[in-house]
TrEMBL record:
Protein name: 12798_t:CDS:1
Source organism superkingdom: Eukaryota
Organism: Ambispora leptoticha
Pfam families for this protein: CTP_transf_like, MBOAT
CDD domains the UniProt entry points to: CCT
């Protein structure tokens, strides 16, 4: 382009006087020059303002600028996503002198400098330079421009003035990169265009990201080109479908509603077809996987029609054993986990995905084999069926991934507990037998896993200084690295516990799969060497990676470099659990048919004496616990055999296998107080209630209140279902536990003193009797479920434990505790005794386990 043609572009402007804009604080170099306004822009006025400033405020070098050549003005910037704010600034610089031609040079920084000083750009340096070359106000583009101008740069390009807005731009070396030219009087301030900037444009794109993604997908751009994951692509498609449905509803709402009805009918048919394909493909996947192990025939049997399940063999076995046929199938499934545990141990330790798939495949086999697959024609059957079970697990994972902060675990808790509640209500309305084993059992385990997982992810997102507010147990379970979907499903559907428990934490599963719980250090090296020698001698069921270690080596780093691990022999502990479980099966066959809680509703029971009724309930409640002992012990044994039950070594170097222990039968049956009894029963559920309900309700740093206990028991009742019997048991249990605390604080200290210590055994024996009889009395509604029937049986026993609880609380409220202390001459030592009692007994504020 010739110089004369460039001069023709300059326009004459009228003179006007305006003050230069006031100084502002230092801002970003690009964002301020690129801001916009919604008002109309008068370019001639801006040029007049700049011209007035140039004639009144600027001076030239010692050598005056020749009137025969154009004035050389320089502008610089990033010019990413070139827009009209950039063009307006360049136009002002071009029209600054009304009577002189201007040769406008524009510098653009390269990518390396821009990314270092400011950050990543959308356009690269070539695209940004080409955008400037196509602007009619620009005469020359200087690529690789410096961030700060110096005298050498001015001389090289023969620059007379530098134009830019007047805001100071701070850099690492100076408070204003234009301070150099301002001091020389060569700076021309331009007017900013408020309201538009590159940052603002990027903000708009990010804000409407889903809409732009959807638009590009509709235009044929692939998800891979858009860098979309599978879940994100499905999320966008789902939002599109919802948007279309909303649009269709809006258009047809005031019409004949025919189209609307057709849309929903079509959507319903699509869902049916989708679920049918889902079931077909899942069965194909299971068959293909099982074919590799030669078990295809077994899988085909599991997928046969459900009407053929209750075969004559099932019925005959049920009659002989006194165990319902569905319970027998549960027992058979649990027994099958023992050989599966041996196979699981033999899987390659480094192939973690194979381990996840192993558990997931078995879970799918069991669910499709034992439970009714959802009938897609019925939404209630879908929600409460296998598909709803799987959908709940996937939905909670999505919430945990995409929702940040404290609301994520709350939403997951609401979704998981809400879905379980729907299943409980459906079970209750369909009048399903209370003794029938259906999908609500595994769902209860699922709720524990999903909610603990969500809270652990939330705790892992907290800064270190905030995470110190967590208990040591909660600290140890924090998830700082989000698992993949496959790892998550492997945890949720772990073959050893997904059916009846015991539920465990995700970090236990991760350390189990990655072998971290078996790493060898100097602390367990001696025990490791002994186990290696014994295992080589017996040559049974031990998995060892490594060799006998030198006793002189105490540096753990050497072991870590060798990546040594050792899985102790869990065969004998697992068999002990299995044998113990079989023992309770035998006892159940001998006693359960003769001592049932249901018989307490008969007229014959009513005619018996009070003592007979009282002791019959004790035996019947004892027999009712057999089935829980059986499934929990057998399931724990399978987990031990797989290696998951390993929990380190005790002080004597013996292996501990109690990581997933869910029931301590001996401790429960010999408990002399409610605290010990609750700690021994359904232990992993109690850990969940304590760490994710009880302690989450209690404000940090404050002492737990009765409300915390009451709310926790209420959550436990909700988790079990909506039968009135559950709430009678748990609400009464809350008052009993409160009374138990009062006794421990006011009565127990007396028997820890020298005066009454000789009567401590009598106190303990009395405590055992009262505790066992009270808990057996309280669980009657838990079994009968009906409000009327439960109150009827309690009435036959004259509500004895309830009356005792009320009397004890009234007596303590009247100061009986102080009177007893005074009578024993221990009133002055009352506070000291209370502290000693809490220290010796380590009494927590709840009856739940401490870890």
């Amino acid at each position: 382009m010739s110089l004369s043609s460039k001069r023709k572009r300059a326009s004459n402007t009228a003179n006007s006087s305006k003050q230069a804009p006031p100084n502002h604080t230092a801002v970003d170099k690009e964002s301020t020059q690129n801001a916009t306004t919604t008002t109309s822009i008068n370019y001639e006025d801006d040029a007049n303002d700049l011209s007035a400033n140039s004639s009144n405020s600027f001076h030239t070098d010692d050598e005056p600028i020749s009137s025969k050549r154009p004035i050389r003005i320089y502008c610089d910037g990033i010019f990413d996503l070139f827009h009209f704010g950039h063009a307006r600034m360049l136009e002002q610089a071009k029209k600054v002198f009304k009577d002189r031609d201007v040769y406008l040079l524009v510098g653009v920084c390269d990518d390396q400098l821009t990314h270092e000083k400011k950050g990543k750009t959308v356009m690269d340096e070539y695209e940004r330079a080409e955008s400037l070359r196509h602007c009619k106000w620009v005469d020359e583009v200087i690529e690789h421009a410096p961030w700060a101008i110096d005298q050498a740069f001015l001389d090289k390009h023969k620059i007379d003035y530098v134009a830019h807005d007047d805001l100071p731009y701070a850099s690492q070396d100076t408070a204003d990169v234009y301070a150099f030219v301002k001091e020389q009087g060569k700076f021309l301030p331009t007017q900013r265009t408020e309201g538009v900037s590159t940052s603002d444009l990027i903000t708009r794109i990010v804000r409407d990201y889903d809409q732009y993604v959807r638009r590009n997908l509709e235009r044929g751009v692939t998800a891979k080109e858009l860098n979309l994951g599978f879940l994100k692509e499905q999320e966008v498609n789902l939002k599109k479908s919802i948007s279309e449905i909303k649009s269709s509803i809006h258009q047809n709402w005031h019409g004949t509603k025919t189209e609307l009805r057709n849309d929903f009918s079509e959507l319903k048919n699509d869902l049916r077809q989708t679920f049918a394909v889902w079931e077909e493909k899942s069965q194909e996947y299971v068959r293909e996987f099982s074919r590799r192990f030669g078990a295809e025939s077994v899988v085909d049997k599991l997928f046969r029609r459900r009407s053929r399940r209750n075969t004559s063999v099932d019925v005959a076995t049920s009659v002989i054993t006194g165990v319902p046929s569905d319970h027998l199938r549960v027992l058979a499934t649990l027994m099958s986990t023992y050989p599966l545990a041996l196979i699981f141990r033999s899987l390659p330790p480094k192939n973690q995905n194979l381990k996840h798939l192993f558990s997931l495949t078995f879970a799918i086999l069991v669910m499709f084999g034992m439970f009714d697959v959802a009938n897609t024609a019925s939404m209630s059957r879908f929600v409460t069926g296998v598909y709803g079970f799987l959908a709940c697990a996937l939905l909670c994972y999505v919430v945990t991934v995409y929702v940040k902060g404290k609301w994520a675990p709350r939403i997951v808790f609401f979704l998981a507990m809400g879905h379980l509640s729907i299943s409980h209500i459906y079970r209750q309305l369909s009048r399903t037998s209370s003794d029938k084993f259906d999908l609500t059992g595994p769902q209860m385990i699922l709720v524990i896993k999903l909610t603990t997982f969500a809270y652990n992810v939330y705790d892992g997102q907290k800064p270190t200084q905030v995470s110190f507010e967590l208990t040591p147990y909660q600290q140890s379970k924090r998830i700082t690295v989000m698992p993949s979907l496959l790892e998550y499903l492997g945890y949720v559907f772990f073959f050893g516990d997904f059916l009846v428990g015991p539920a465990f934490e995700f970090m236990d599963y991760r350390q189990f799969i990655t072998m971290d719980m078996y790493r060898i250090s100097s602390k367990n090296r001696e025990q490791h060497n002994n186990e290696v020698k014994q295992s080589r001698k017996n040559n049974i069921l031990s998995q060892i990676n490594g060799q006998i270690l030198d006793k002189q080596k105490d540096d753990d780093n050497d072991d870590e470099k060798k990546n040594l691990y050792y899985i102790p022999n869990g065969f004998y502990p697992a068999m002990q659990k299995l044998m113990f479980g079989l023992f309770w099966i035998a006892l159940n066959m001998l006693m359960a048919k003769d001592f049932t809680i249901e018989w307490t509703l008969s007229e014959e029971f009513k005619k018996r004496s009070f003592l007979y009724r009282f002791y019959y309930i004790q035996i019947a409640a004892f027999c009712a616990r057999f089935k829980y002992y059986v499934v929990w012990l057998i399931a724990e044994g399978a987990c031990i055999l797989s290696g998951l039950g390993f929990n380190g070594y005790d002080d004597k170097g013996n292996v501990k296998w109690n990581r997933v222990t869910n029931i301590d039968v001996i401790a429960y049956e010999t408990a002399d107080n409610i605290k010990t009894l609750l700690e021994a029963w359904n232990m992993n559920t109690n850990k969940w209630l304590k760490n994710y309900v009880y302690l989450r309700i209690t404000p940090s740093g404050k002492k737990p209140s009765f409300f915390s206990t009451f709310a926790t028991f209420g959550t436990s009742a909700l988790w079990h279902g909506f039968f009135p019997g559950y709430y009678l048991t748990f609400v009464s249990g809350a008052f009993v536990q409160s009374t138990h605390r009062a006794i421990r604080r006011n009565i127990r200290p007396l028997f820890l003193t020298p005066k009454l210590s000789s009567y401590k055994r009598i106190y303990d024996l009395t405590g055992w009797f009262v505790t066992q009889t009270t808990i057996n009395y309280l669980i009657v509604p838990f079994i009968l479920l009906s409000l009327r029937q439960s109150l009827y049986v309690w009435k036959l026993n004259y509500f004895t434990p309830h009356i005792g609880v009320i009397l004890i609380n009234v007596l303590f409220a009247m100061g009986t505790g102080r009177l007893l202390m005074k009578a024993c001459g221990l009133l002055s030592d009352r506070k000291v005794l209370l502290k000693q009692t809490e220290k010796i007994e380590n009494v927590p504020e709840t009856g739940f386990p401490d870890n």
